[in-house]
Design a protein that fits this description.
2 domains, three-stranded antiparallel sheet
């Protein structure tokens, strides 16, 4: 026994044994975490070195990764011919299905929606079964999320005019999408690109977007939680583009507050956050959100005043009124995008003074037929009369300029023709004189007196 003690040491008690086991488990967990971290770093390095995989598009050179997620990877790249910066979204392409995002984005044509440049396919490691779709889009350097975060960190309020112009453009984009029957289904600050200098804004990322068909069910578990409309939380499958209207309302509130308005950790908490501000919905309101939802047991809570919500920031009262109309339980009670654009909060943007100051940067009134499709009767209210008059004058000037160019072109052509005709006549005369001189020369050779005549003629 003593020899065994010398060889193996003192026997361990149970607690010591458990402690060693726990230490061993912790060590294994640490090693596993390190391995996972190393694998992630290796994957990131592989992604960053994937420029060679883009040899299928000789017109593009990759720069760096600017976005990464379950959807795929987003690269910053450059067009070789124009040196224009672009963003490339690379996603796995299942051969059995069409890529819905690509099908939607290539059909879009609006100044406040991201623009498609081109698209092409590549393979991973020359594997024909691993095909990737590369969607090339215009590049806008900032997201609204980043801008909001910058102002929050600097403890500065979001510039009121910038907030107003951004909000207006979001609803113009939504009016267009509504006109062509598309619901974005994931509007949030991270999916909104903007340029503070030009005040231009573009909605991007149509990975969750869908063309809604009346009567056709849709998944309710959609849209990022903080910006998810209450009808989705109640499980509605027959929803409309009004869910996008709700999302924009929450984004506007976030621009004011500097943080999400409804920061729920899960679906139930999200609904609680909404009820804390809007109050408990009635049974009738729940039925209008989702007729299939029969059970609802929440304590009766009174709504909170919107003025109280924004007491610290003290925004324009008209802006508070707008938000109070956008963020309501019943989807049909929310104003349409075009109706929202007519809210008094946006009256400043319809002034000629604003147009003269910012028209070089953005055009807020060049509405397309698709935008006006749902409510064409509102066109006369949306487009100021002074704007129409200016555009008509500009159009006349352009037409007059084109006519002047055409007249000038016609005159140049006429003078050119006349000149060519005169040159043809002159050349003809030279040919005649040349022939006549040749005949005179031959005559002088046969008749000596003719030579004297030519000499006398030349000196006279």
């Amino acid at each position: 026994m003593n020899n065994m003690k010398k060889q193996y040491g003192q026997p361990m008690n149970v607690s010591q044994s458990q402690g060693n086991v726990m230490q061993s488990q912790n060590l294994q967990q640490q090693q596993l975490a390190q391995q996972q971290q190393a694998q992630q770093q290796q994957q990131l390095q592989q992604q960053q070195q994937e420029q060679l995989q883009y040899s299928g598009s000789p017109n593009i050179t990759l720069d760096k990764i600017i976005g990464n997620g379950t959807f795929g990877v987003v690269y910053l790249a450059k067009m070789n011919d124009t040196q224009e910066q672009v963003a490339i979204k690379k996603v796995f392409q299942d051969k059995r299905y069409k890529n819905r995002e690509f099908e939607i984005i290539k059909s879009l044509n609006h100044q406040n929606l991201i623009k498609l440049k081109q698209a092409y396919y590549t393979t991973q490691n020359n594997n024909p079964d691993e095909v990737y779709l590369n969607i090339v889009m215009e590049y806008v350097p900032e997201t609204l999320s980043k801008v909001i975060r910058t102002y929050r960190k600097s403890k500065q309020p979001f510039p009121p005019l910038l907030l107003k112009v951004f909000s207006y453009q979001m609803f113009r984009a939504l009016a267009y999408l509504k006109g062509i029957g598309i619901c974005h289904r994931d509007i949030k600050p991270q999916n909104i690109l903007c340029d503070q200098k030009t005040m231009q804004l573009k909605i991007c990322d149509f990975g969750s977007a869908k063309k809604l068909i009346k009567g056709e069910p849709n998944v309710s578990y959609i849209c990022s939680r903080y910006y998810r409309a209450p009808e989705l939380i109640f499980g509605a499958e027959q929803y409309t583009t009004a869910i996008d209207t709700w999302s924009i309302g929450t984004v506007i509130a976030e621009m004011i507050l500097g943080e999400p308005l409804f920061p729920g950790e899960n679906a139930v908490e999200q609904l609680v956050e909404i009820i804390k501000i809007l109050g408990t919905p009635t049974k009738e309101q729940v039925q209008k959100m989702n007729p299939q939802h029969n059970q609802f047991n929440f304590p009766s809570i009174k709504p909170t005043s919107w003025t109280k919500i924004f007491a610290k920031q003290k925004p324009d009262p008209m802006l508070i009124d707008l938000i109070s109309r956008l963020l309501v339980f019943v989807p049909t009670d929310r104003p349409t995008p075009l109706e929202t654009l007519l809210h008094p909060y946006f009256n400043e943007l319809r002034s000629e003074k604003f147009y003269e100051q910012y028209t070089k940067q953005i055009d807020l009134f060049n509405f397309s037929p698709e935008e006006l499709k749902s409510q064409p009767q509102l066109a006369s209210q949306l487009i100021p009369q002074w704007y129409t008059s200016r555009r008509e004058k500009e159009s006349k000037l352009i037409n007059n300029s084109k006519q002047a160019e055409q007249q000038q072109s016609q005159l140049v052509n006429q003078l050119t023709n006349e000149f060519n005709q005169k040159m043809d006549i002159s050349n003809s005369q030279k040919n005649i004189n040349g022939n006549f001189g040749g005949s005179m020369m031959s005559s002088s050779q046969s008749n000596p007196n003719m030579g004297n005549y030519q000499k006398n003629y030349q000196y006279h």
